[in-house]
């Protein structure tokens, strides 16, 4: 699975926590041992008076990209259940090309 990763467009994450819940349910993790967690960045004000407030889903070292689901030709649980559809799963090379197109994204690759 090392050639695969997640591209997360955090600009549109709504902080619904669906990715966290889906991960917990899929892997039977306790809440304190999630494979992904949503972090809050902000709110803060820019010098021009505009405000910024982002939610950023961040996979942990427990994330295996739902290897069992992927072997069954399914998306990782976090990607499948993301209500805002801000997560993409795919080959690193393909995700890098998408990453170059738009700022405010995070490209995550497992160890």
From TrEMBL:
Signal peptide: none annotated. GO terms for molecular function: 4 iron, 4 sulfur cluster binding; metal ion binding. InterPro entries: 4Fe4S_Fe-S-bd, 4Fe4S_Fe_S_CS, ET_IronSulfur_Cluster-Binding. Residues 4-32 form the 4Fe-4S ferredoxin-type domain. Gene3D superfamilies: 3.30.70.20. Keywords: 4Fe-4S, Electron transport, Iron, Iron-sulfur, Metal-binding, Repeat, Transport. SUPFAM superfamilies: 4Fe-4S ferredoxins (SSF54862). This is Oxidoreductase. The lineage of its organism: Bacteria, Bacillati, Actinomycetota, Coriobacteriia, Eggerthellales.
């Amino acid at each position: 699975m090392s050639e695969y990763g997640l591209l997360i467009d955090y600009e549109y994450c709504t902080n619904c926590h669906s990715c966290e819940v889906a991960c917990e349910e899929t892997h039977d993790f306790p809440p304190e041992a999630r494979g992904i967690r949503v972090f809050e960045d902000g709110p803060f004000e820019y010098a021009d008076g505009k405000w910024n407030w982002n939610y950023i889903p961040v996979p942990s070292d427990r994330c295996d990209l739902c290897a069992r689901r992927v072997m069954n030709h399914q998306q990782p649980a976090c990607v499948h259940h993301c209500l805002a559809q801000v997560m993409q799963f795919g080959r690193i090379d393909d995700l890098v090309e998408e990453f170059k197109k738009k700022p405010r994204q995070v490209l995550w690759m497992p160890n």
